[in-house]
Amino acid sequence: MYKYGWIVLADEKLILSNQPATQTLSRNTTRGIEMKTCSTCKQIKEIYEFYKHPFTKDGYHPVCKICSLKHQKQYSQTEKGKVARYRAVRHYRQTKKGKIANNRANKRYSQSEKGKVIRRKASKRYNLRYPERIKAKNAVDNAVASGKIPRIKTLKCNYCPKQAEQYHHYLGYAPEHWFDVIPTCIKCHKKEHKKVA
To answer: What domains does the chain contain, in order, with CATH numbers?
Structure first.
């Protein structure tokens, strides 16, 4: 039994051929529309309903776009599909393009009503969980405002050559150490807190 790879329709007449090439539909002599059979649903469809594929003879995927999307949807519901999706997203977010897109999405979300509500709740939880940190930070902010401590923008990070962005309480948050601070960039500040934890 032959598997027919192509179909030529000339003057509304169906001609089957077993040559492995793209199917062609031509209703008149000037215009021809390429056709192809989907290997999943077995329907004859126009060539634009298939994704391009560099490794097939005709240059198009054997499965039509609709069947491909159905398969992708089913796969994404499986455990293996969820893991693959997670890895792909994580990899994309590490690329330059992914970082820009992620920052843009985070900014949009944080400016939305839902994002603002979540942010307020998180801030409230943090304040309840670390009251000593809030008091120490407020004390430093007040000292900066009164001129007792220099503004952070005028200093360099203590650990790297970058511009300082935050003060780090290197001796802890007890009231006697509120003003024992060193200027750090955000990255170095996070590293120092990870060392302590």
So the answer is: 6-71 (3.30.60), 78-129 (no CATH), 130-196 (no CATH)
